[in-house]
TrEMBL record:
Spore coat protein U/FanG domain segment(s): 3-141, 166-307
High-level lineage: Bacteria, Pseudomonadati, Pseudomonadota, Gammaproteobacteria, Pseudomonadales
UniProt protein name: Spore coat protein U domain-containing protein
Keywords: Capsid protein, Virion
Domain of life: Bacteria
């Protein structure tokens, strides 16, 4: 009885984690698969691999990198796995034998006439506070193959395929800008006349992507008229109010100079630092006031909804 399997090392296609925002990079493990680490085999074996067979690959990062490197030098750490499980981590720069742990057999790499490849699984670590941009790493993958390609009667090995070959494998991930926003509701309380409403002084907290310059805008709400925001009652009456930058009288809006830049933050001005911590957040103070030059409307509950947006 005789069967034969032939293997070769081919060019790979890049593996990608895709587009991931900076908050998810920092807080959530990302996973992806490289469909091929470059080894492709065809054939049909009638038994499992022999104890003296080996399919070894050594993954060496070009330029001595230790992770995905971005445009500002930030690094996203991740781990390579030989199977879709954390039980099979691959150590950079050290040979990993895919013939062990039953991985080659489980993949059916030598068990059919259609070409099959060895996939690599990748998982990021949740420790990276990084800037936006393309993150990339390229490996040289050195394969060392030594296995019995044909079996005769009594499981005698009829011949071995022995060769060494290299290919490259590129991994990439694109980090997109993101912000975590804390914005409390504005509550004026109650008063019998418009002059009785106190000024509400509060702030908006933003934790945006490391190194990002951005602007923050507040739209005109749902009932704007005459350049003033207005709250509306269920009876269709209006109470005009507005939101002003910091502690002054400059209206905070959504267009052009009416927006606020990250460099204009009252606490931690400048570009975002992406830390997600309260101490690292950028704080934008504001005051909200009911206009006192309007007639007092009928009693009721007055509501409005204002959209806060961030532009990078």
């Amino acid at each position: 009885m005789r069967a034969q399997a032939l293997c070769q090392v081919l060019a790979t296609t890049p593996a990608t984690f895709g587009l991931v925002n900076s908050t998810l990079i920092r807080t959530t493990v990302q996973t992806t698969t490289a469909p091929s680490a470059g080894l492709s085999c065809t054939g049909s074996l009638l038994t499992l691999l022999r104890s003296d067979d080996s399919f070894k690959a050594t993954f060496t990062a070009n330029n001595g990198t230790t992770g995905l490197v971005g445009p500002t030098g930030d690094v996203i750490l991740y781990t390579l796995y030989a199977n879709n499980s954390t039980s099979y981590p691959i150590t950079r720069g050290q040979p990993y034998d895919f013939a062990r742990n039953g991985i080659i057999d489980a993949l059916g790499l030598l068990g059919g006439t259609s070409p099959k490849t060895v996939p690599i699984y990748l998982r990021t670590q949740m420790t990276s506070n990084v800037a936006a941009g393309l993150y990339q790493e390229t490996f040289t993958v050195a394969w060392s193959i030594d296995y019995c390609w044909g079996l005769g009667l009594g499981s005698a090995c009829l011949g071995r395929q022995v060769f060494n070959a290299t290919t490259t494998l590129t991994i990439n991930l694109t980090v997109t800008n993101d912000c975590q926003i804390s914005s409390p509701n504005i509550v004026f309380g109650s008063a019998p006349v418009v002059s009785g409403f106190a000024t509400v002084s509060q702030n908006v907290n933003l934790a945006c992507t490391k190194g990002s310059a951005y602007t923050v805008g507040l739209d005109d709400g749902q009932n704007v008229a005459g350049g003033r925001r207005r709250m509306k009652s269920s009876a269709g009456n209006y109470l005009a109010y507005d939101i002003f930058k910091s502690g002054g009288g400059v209206r905070w809006g959504s267009l052009s100079s009416a927006r606020r830049a990250s460099s204009d933050a009252d606490i931690n001005p400048g570009n975002g630092n992406g830390s997600g911590s309260a101490a690292g957040s950028q704080v934008f103070n504001y005051n909200a006031r009911v206009y006192t030059d309007q007639a007092t409307p009928p009693a009721g509950d007055y509501l409005d909804s204002v959209i806060l947006d961030v532009q990078f």
